[in-house]
Amino acid sequence: MRQASEAARDTAQRFVTDRWGQRKPSPHGQLSADQLAMFGSVVRDALMPAEWPDAVALDETSFDLTITETDDQGDKVSHPGSVSILGIYGYQAGRGSGRAIRLAARGGADRIEWEAVLRSRKAEPTWVVCDQGKAVMAAVKRAWPNATIYICEAHLRMLGEQRLAADGFDRFHPLWRSLRKAIPKRDAWIVFEQEVRDAGATQTLAWIRDARPLMDHQWAIREDDRPHSIGGLETVFQEVVRRLGDRRFVFRNRARLELVFDLMALDLAKEANDLRYREIIRTHLLRNAGRPTRKRRALDDHGGSSLHHAVTEVEARLKRRREQNARAQRAHLDRLRKSGKARTRTPSRRARNVRQSSR
């Protein structure tokens, strides 16, 4: 932001005099922040699709930052927090190459946050690739009830590799290559299952049996020319977090950060171009009597931090949900105890934790 502000002032020959009497462009970042507020959404809306494409891939990542809040005594306190980036990778024709079309900065990645992002644009994809996360799958079923959900093949392969590693087979063992072939094809899966049985890989064999119903569904709906992985988003996430760098700990404004993410996505898709951006902004200004429709401080928070508030809101929601689950578990155990059906064996770790939390 500072570098962009300094370059803009230098081009416009707007200088300030420093303490030694030299005239230089100021590096203060407010100019870029103001331009981002006035024209960032104009560029994004012109180059990003207004509706969801026919096929999308969904994934999320997170980065750490410091949450600053005011306690009951009016003192500022800080504690670590985590911001989620909910990513949507779109395939306009439902197949072929795609690109990131939405990077949302949210306080978490629960079902409520995912559903809000999925409902933020019109249309409904017919093909959705995601992992087996309960939150994202529940959100897809609620927001896009007619979409076909396909579980990411790379995610399934990773689960199988974890079981192979637990059985003592490293990544150079032939079973790893067999697993890669088995995920997309039923015949190769049967061969892989026999190889695992012959090798005595008990944990992998148990995973194969548990995963078989899902794999039968995957093979039944699989289309060769459709996307089958969320790997494209992994590359985008890595680059976005790299660009945030050490400055990721100081972000406070959610709307501004979300807009920066979307502009990063345009850049990674090679859609960012000085001339193109200039013409989009020029057209916007000519359409509105030479004035932007948004104010310079349109993205500013009015008291507090919108990003920090988003994180604490999700944390409070998850806390309430854990408390509800704990109460439901205690009530279930009480009903079993009163009916005489409670098991007399040593309680599980989960039951012990519930009892400790109730105390």
CA(first)-CA(last) distance: 51 Å
Radius of gyration over all CA atoms, rounded = 26 Å
- Low-pLDDT stretches: none
- In total, the number of domains comes to 4
Strand order of the largest sheet: 5-4-3-6-7
Helix content: 40-55%
* Number of extended strands: 7
Number of helices: 13
| Main beta-sheet annotation | 5 strands, mixed
Order of helices and strands: HEEHEEEHEHEHHHHHHHHH
Structural class estimated from helices and strands:
alpha/beta
Estimate the mean pLDDT confidence.
Answer: 89
Shape: globular
Strand percent estimate = 5-15%
How would you describe this protein?
The model has no long low-confidence stretch (mean pLDDT 89). The protein is globular and about 80 Å long. With 359 residues, it is α/β, with parallel strands linked by helices. Helices cover 53% and strands 14% of the residues. A hairpin with a 5-residue loop joins strand 3 (55-70) and strand 4. The protein has helices at 2-11, 30-47, 111-118, 134-143, 153-166, 174-182, 186-199, 202-221, 231-244, 254-268, 274-287, 306-339, 349-358, and strands at 16-17, 23-24, 55-70, 76-91, 99-106, 127-130, 148-151.
SSE inventory with pairings:
Elements: H1 2-11, E1 16-17, E2 23-24, H2 30-47, E3 55-70, E4 76-91, E5 99-106, H3 111-118, E6 127-130, H4 134-143, E7 148-151, H5 153-166, H6 174-182, H7 186-199, H8 202-221, H9 231-244, H10 254-268, H11 274-287, H12 306-339, H13 349-358
Helix pairs in contact: 2-10, 2-11, 3-4, 5-6, 5-8, 6-7, 7-8, 12-13
